[in-house]
Amino acid sequence: MLYWLTALSDGGDFFNLFRYITFRAGGAFLTALIFGFVFGKPLINVLRKKQGKGQPIRDDGPEGHFVKAGTPTMGGLLIVGALLTATLLWARWDNPFVWMVMFVTLAFALIGFVDDYAKVSKQNTAGVPGKVRLALGVAIAAAAAVWASWHHPDALQNQLALPVFKDVLLNLGLFYIPFSIIVIVGSANAVNLTDGLDGLAIMPVMIAAGTLGIIAYAVGRVDFSEYLDVHYVPGTGEILIFTAALFGGGLGFLWYNAPPAAVFMGDTGSLALGGALGAIAVATKHELVLAIVGGLFVVEALSVIIQVLYFKRTGRRVFLMAPIHHHYEKKGWAEPTIVIRFWIISLILAMIGLATLKVR
Questions:
Q1: Which residues pair with 170 in a beta bridge?
Q2: Count of CB atoms within 10 A of residue 50's CB?
Q3: What is the pLDDT of residue 343?
Q4: For all residues of the chain together, what is the average pLDDT?
């Protein structure tokens, strides 16, 4: 919205700053961060009052989690609120990719909110049936995939770009939409599975968002895309504002989610943020790079898939408990140790993902 202040500019004054994506990204970051600090404590107080017993704790979970009983959930409302407010304030409203990413974020947040509400009101961990959540997620992702495809350049429509390999595109044809759905829905659920320890999910999400924001800015500029030999996608640079807002809102949430957590993200936050990462990857034609940057989420999801399939086949378990962060808890690792080491892994993977921009 503030972008339109450029109409008051003569080209050499303060209002001219609003033309620059980097300036508005900085504004979005600060806005979301301040939003988190201002509304964080009041929101937690409301959630604690309304939820009573807070998020239900699994009976078969690690023993150390029982001390967390009574901690309120739905903290994702703080992140999503900060994120959408800052983006609406600082981003251009005529950019289709920004609206696509915000649509996915809000829609998945609503699914997560209903799921969290069901868990809290019934005081069990079942929530909304998985098939219902999956069907809704697929519908949202399908709309976003079609939305993105319409606004991609003709030469990139229905194409899959391969990292590292210069100018290589795979024409997926009719399979592009289903592939994009898998990326968005898979990302949403992978982040959801990762959100199991205090502070575990939010920092890797912020790292991945920051990385994808840099990629979006690069592929959205002709000069940068030519220099880096990546495919130019007009308009995606504006996504940097969204990712900057996510980073700021994430920091504001982490202030209250740091061990011991005063509030949990809940499905409200994890589904929304995971869906957003997938949507950004689809918009920027970096779907495969997301698997590198978000490699931690991939491992968490794979650990659950492997555990379930192997148990059904043999009656035995590969891991002491899935997702894999619970496996290390069962092995005796302290929760802060797991969280910080997983943060480090996320940062390393982000650097590898960024390297794919130049390694050609």
A1: 160
A2: 11
A3: 97
A4: 92
Q: Is 158 annotated as a binding residue?
A: no
Which residue do the tokens 């972008």 mark? 3
Q: Give the Cα separation of 142 and 136 in Å (integer).
A: 10
Per DSSP, 5 falls in state G
Q: In whole angstroms, give the CA distance from residue 54 to residue 198.
A: 15
Give the C-alpha distances (Å, rounded to integers) separating 287 from 63, 160, 164.
Answer: 38, 8, 13
Q: What is the rounded distance in angstroms from the CA atom of residue 137 to the CA atom of residue 201?
A: 20
Our CA dihedral for 81, 85, 88, 89, rounded to 10 degrees, sits at -170
Q: What is the CA radius of gyration of the chain?
A: 20
Closest CA to 284 of 338, 208, 337: 208
Q: What is the DSSP letter of 259?
A: S
**Residue 125 has which token pair?**
């961990």
Q: How far apart are CA 234 and CA 332, in angstroms?
A: 49
Q: Is 243 within 8 Å of 280 (Cβ atoms)?
A: yes
Mapped to the 3 state alphabet, what secondary structure does 10-61 carry? CCCCHHHHHHCHHHHHHHHHHHHHHHHHHHHHHHHHHHHHHHCCCCCCCCCC
Query: Rounded to whole angstroms, how far apart are CA atoms 126 and 139?
Result: 22
pLDDT of residue 181: 98
Amino acid occupying residue 16: N
Alpha helices (H) in 52-94, listed in sequence order:
76-90
Q: Name 90's Cβ contacts closer than 8 Å, sequence gap at least 6.
A: 1, 2, 3, 24, 25, 27, 28, 31, 241, 245
DSSP letters, 111-134, are HHHHHHHHHHHHTSS--S-HHHHH
For the chain, what's the residue count? 360
Q: What is the per-residue pLDDT for 57?
A: 65
To the question of whether residue 60 is assigned a binding role by annotation, the answer is no
What pLDDT sits at residue 327?
A: 95
65-91 per-position pLDDT tens digit: 656 677 899 999 999 999 999 999 999
